[in-house]
Amino acid sequence: MLDHVDPGASVASYTVAEQRRIATCLRRKGYSAGYTRRVMGIAAAGVNWAWKNGEIDRQIPIVLPPEGSGRERIMTIEEMARLWEVDMPPHLRMFLALLIGTASRPEALLQLTREQCDLRHGVIDLNPTGRMRTKKRRPRIPIPNFLKSWIEDVPIGHLVTYKSKPILKINGAWRAAREAACLSQEIVPYTVRHTMATELITRGVPEIEVASLMGHAMPNLRTTGRYVHVRPDFLANAKQAIDEVASTIDRVAARSMVKSQFAC
Question: pTM of this prediction?
Answer without folding.
Answer: 0.70
